[in-house]
Structure formats: C-alpha cells, structure tokens
C-alpha cells in the first residue's frame, strides 16, 4: 500500500489567526464547560464503559446475561399459565355474556332487580322522571305503538362510537352490521398452540348466508432465539379469517368497474367489466397472510397486519368484556382521560397480558 502526502501551503498570517481564535475559544468558560460535558457524556455511554472493564468482570456480565435468558423463558411459561387462567375465567363470564345477548336481542326481559341501577345523576334523573309522569299516559301509548325489541343497533352503535372501528366501516357496511347480534371470544384448548378466536354472530340478512364469521389470531409466547432480551410477553404472529358466503350481487368487498379496451390491429373498442377490491369492514375476515418461508412483507403490508393485530386485541381486551360501556360511551371517556393522564410521562406496563 502507498501513503500519499499532500502538502498545502497556508499563509503564515492565516495560521496565526487560527491559533489566536483557538486561544480565545479555550479561554471562554462556557465553551470549555460545553466541551467537557460532551466529553463526559461520550465517556459514560454504557457500551464504552463496558469496554473499559477487566476481562474477569466482562465474564461475570456474560453469566448474568445467561441468567436473564433463563428468566425470559420462565416469563414465557408464566404467560402460558395466564392464558390458561383466561380460558378458565372466560367460562365463568360466558353465562353473563349469554344473558347480555338475550337482553340485547330481545330474547328475554330483565327483572326489576336486574334493571335496577343507581347512577351518579340520580337526583336529576328523579326530577326528570317526575316531570315525565305528567305525560305518562301519552308515553305508554307511544311505547305500545313502537314496541321496541331489545336494544336496537347495539353492536353497530359500538362500531360507530369507537374511532378504531368506525374508520373501517363504509356506508354500505352499515346495513349489514345492524344484523350483528353478538361477538364472542374463544380461547385455544389446553395442549393446543396459543391462540384466540373472535366470533361475530349475525341474524338472517340479505347479504350473506353465514350465521357466524370468525377470525383466529395465532400467538407465540417464547423468547426469540436471536434476540431473547426483546421478549415482553405473548405476541400475535399470524391470523386466519373465514370465507363469507355472499349472496348474489351483495358482496361489498368488491366493486364492478367498466373499462374500455382498444384492439391494436383493428382499432375497434370494446367495454369490459371486471371486479376490483373495495374498502369494507368485511375485509377484516380476509387478512394478509404471514409467509411461512421467512419472506418479508413490504412496508404497507406490515402496517396493515400490525393494525389488524391491534384491532383483534382491542376486541378481545376491551370491546367484548365491556360492551355496554362502549355502547353508552362511558368507556370511551375513560380511555380519553387515561390517554391525557399519560401525556409526557414514560409508559409503564402493569397489565399482565399486553402484546
């Protein structure tokens, strides 16, 4: 190899000026303090500090990392048992959710004891009730005429109230969602790979013949072999949808467009029709598949899949367990207050089962 030396002639007065400026800078206390702080910060970075440690100390640090990996594997087992507990308690919740479904769909009427509820504005409501008694006869007559069954548009109202869901719903989805009667969460059985399924139960409608649409989320609760320290609990790794048996001309996930084609030789023009994908909530049941051969997804697909996982998790953790509060909007107000309280603070995860 060769070393090239380039000689540059710099005027003596320029060199003198540079030395003079450097001398002035070094005599400035603020500049010196800033330089010292910069040097201190550079010297105290964790990686540079570790490099300065004796070999025997580094060896002990490596041993600590081995222990940390073992801790991660124990933590993974902990989350597997949490999943088992969720399955156990889901069975205890289900009778209450079944009764909720009956009240929503008008299959049963709550008793006076079941419908008794003391709100924070009870006195105001009592006063309003007294005023209503003035026209009680008219109201009873009107109620008999309307004869409302259950709680109309219960689940559809939740979709409309929750921003994460309303963004997915198109105008032509709305008549279909008004037939939604229940949403259930089912957990994988003991001994099976960790997963959970969302079941959307629909009443008879003019759009598809399915009574239940399902979405299954597959999960993994084990540290990554290449990066075990990144483990923070179970994560969704893939999901499966279902086939919707659309009735003729009712598939809202596609639209028909007309396109003109010109023959290259004869110059004649013909019009063809073709179906193209259409934005719809019901695309939720046709998710992007994670490649099993390790092939990476493009950025848009990764974003879509991540959003899908977030929605599935939200249904499971929030919507299904607390449906009435999302219907009334109380849960949404709580969520907003929680987000405002977190602003500017470090996020602390205290919940056992967060993705």
From TrEMBL:
<dbReference type="InterPro" id="IPR037231">
    <property type="entry name" value="NAP-like_sf"/>
</dbReference>
<dbReference type="InterPro" id="IPR002164">
    <property type="entry name" value="NAP_family"/>
</dbReference>
<dbReference type="GO" id="GO:0006334">
    <property type="term" value="P:nucleosome assembly"/>
</dbReference>
<keyword id="KW-0539">Nucleus</keyword>
<comment type="similarity">
    <text>Belongs to the nucleosome assembly protein (NAP) family.</text>
</comment>
<protein>
    <submittedName>
        <fullName>Nucleosome assembly protein 1 like 4</fullName>
    </submittedName>
</protein>
<dbReference type="Pfam" id="PF00956">
    <property type="entry name" value="NAP"/>
</dbReference>
<dbReference type="GO" id="GO:0005634">
    <property type="term" value="C:nucleus"/>
</dbReference>
């Amino acid at each position: 190899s060769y070393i090239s030396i380039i000689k540059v002639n710099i005027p003596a007065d320029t060199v003198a000026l540079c030395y003079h400026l450097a001398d002035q800078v070094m005599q400035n206390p603020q500049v010196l303090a800033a330089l010292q702080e910069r040097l201190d910060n550079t010297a105290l970075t964790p990686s540079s500090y570790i490099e300065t440690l004796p070999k025997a100390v580094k060896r002990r640090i490596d041993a600590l990392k081995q222990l940390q990996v073992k801790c991660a594997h124990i933590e993974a087992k902990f989350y597997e048992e949490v999943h088992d507990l969720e399955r156990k308690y889901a069975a205890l919740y289900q009778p209450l959710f079944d009764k909720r479904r009956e009240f929503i769909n008008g299959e049963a009427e709550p008793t006076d004891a079941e419908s008794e509820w003391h709100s924070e504005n009870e006195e105001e409501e009592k006063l309003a009730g007294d005023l209503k008694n003035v026209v009680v006869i008219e109201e009873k007559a009107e109620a008999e005429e309307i004869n409302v069954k259950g709680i109309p548009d219960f689940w559809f109202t939740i979709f409309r109230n929750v921003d994460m869901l309303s963004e997915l719903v198109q105008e032509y989805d709305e008549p279909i969602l008004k037939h939604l009667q229940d949403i259930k969460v089912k957990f994988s059985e003991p001994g099976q790979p960790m997963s959970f399924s969302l079941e959307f139960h629909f009443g008879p409608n003019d759009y598809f013949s399915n009574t239940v649409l399902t979405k299954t989320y597959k999960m993994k609760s084990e540290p990554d072999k290449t990066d075990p320290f990144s483990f923070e609990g179970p994560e969704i790794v893939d999901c499966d949808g279902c086939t919707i048996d659309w009735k003729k001309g009712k598939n809202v996930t596609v639209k028909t467009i007309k396109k003109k084609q010109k023959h290259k030789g004869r110059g004649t023009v013909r019009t063809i029709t073709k179906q193209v994908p259409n934005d719809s909530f019901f695309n939720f049941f046709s998710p992007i598949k994670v490649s099993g051969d390790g092939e990476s997804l493009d950025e848009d697909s990764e974003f879509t899949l991540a959003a899908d996982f977030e929605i599935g998790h939200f249904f499971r953790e929030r919507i299904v367990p607390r449906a009435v509060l999302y219907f009334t909007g109380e849960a949404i107000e709580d969520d907003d207050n929680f987000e405002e309280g977190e602003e500017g603070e470090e996020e602390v995860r205290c919940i056992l089962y967060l993705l």
